[in-house]
Amino acid sequence: MGSSNRQMRAFKRWMNHHSIHYSDTIDILIHQHQVYVQALYNIHEGDLIATIPKQSCLTVKSSGACDLIEGFDLEGYMALSVALMYEKSLGQLSPWFGYLQLLPDSNPDVPLLWSVDEIDQLLLGTELHKTVKEDKALVYEDWKACIVPFVESAQLDPSDFTLDQYFAAKSLISSRSFQIDDYYGFGMVPLADLFNHKTDAEDVHFTSVSSHSDSDTDSSENIENRVDDHPDGDSLYQIQNESTVTSPEGDLSAGDDTYSSNTEILEMIMVRDVKAGSEVFNTYGSMGNAALLHRYGFTEPDNPYNIVNIDLELVLQWSSSLFSSRHTRSRLSLWKRFHVSEFPNQQIDYFEISSDGEPEVELLKLISIILLPEKAYNEFDRSKVALTSNKKGIVWSEITETNKRLLLTESVRGGLLSLADIRERCYGLRSVEDDVEALEACPVTERKLYHSLVLRISERRILEKLRVYASVGYGH
Questions:
Q1: What digits encode the pLDDT tens for the residues 26-46?
Q2: Contact, 50 vs 20, CB < 8 A?
Q3: Structure pTM?
């Protein structure tokens, strides 16, 4: 604990040294090695609680390795990972040492860092099982094909850019990077990344407001908060040009000789009142537990944004268990033809089941086509009119999410129930009751097991709701 307190004091000195300021109404604390932001006094909506110069953010542009990285044409997460590894390799010589010494070496809770055995045991059947294994293979390929040649070309010490260090850097960036602006791109934002997430309970908000010398008004735009391959963070930055803010001391603009001396800052503004003694939360976006665990290494009980997917492959397996391969192929072909005519640029490999158990309309359409008797199928192919649950015909293109229950014939409901059972079997021999019992006995400190169980249970509860949806039909 003493070491953690010393690191926090050093970080606070570093922030002051680099013109990162926060209000005396909040403090940054550590409890059981977890960092959080707490309100010391009552804070009110609209209060400005922190300002962060953009040059103090660790980005490719601000890194001392900028010229090397851009000269080798590295981009995106790979480039930022190299910048992070480079700055860590400098130790106390890095302008970000006071910030980096507070951070863990990696985020071990992110499944990317789990062993293959842990992934197979803990994530079996979940939305992440296949995804994370694919992620690990891609990260290795990137390291071998790009990072190793870069290190050799730049004549850097290979021991500072090992595969394990690349995985560690990726895990930190996954859980801590923010979009900053068009110039800096995305990077690690000291202080801002210490606010913990709470779904639909955002206390602090970021609004982008760019001030222009040739305009009398400010222009606002929305930009992402946390960054990932699927950017959906809904928090925003407030950005202003302030000539009164001096550049951070130290060579924080090593890769930028042309950037304006009028430092742009990031402002963190309260969007709701928070009482003294309460934690101040940010939100990383409206994400289900699979996305939260994948990107940040945690889950939330009763997350309203949970989903579960049924792969197209599973639907075809179900169809092939009932009909010939030729039947399945022809029905799939017809469904694809209709789908492409409505959505020419959209390819579907899976179907989403929402948190309340409702399947997306395209799954109902595919099941309907698969189950059509041959005569009805031939007539349907010509007329594009489907027989619905009320025994009336409806034009196929007019079936949407709002009226999709019209497709819930008895046979389609049965198909949904069968698919729910097939998807459930992906979780292995353990029942959902077994998972619930294991979660009740699992301490929160066993983070990998705890959060994987929360994920498994949340997905399986959705499948239970899907069965209710299929069984009740109109009465649901």
A1: 999 988 778 999 999 999 999
A2: yes
A3: 0.84
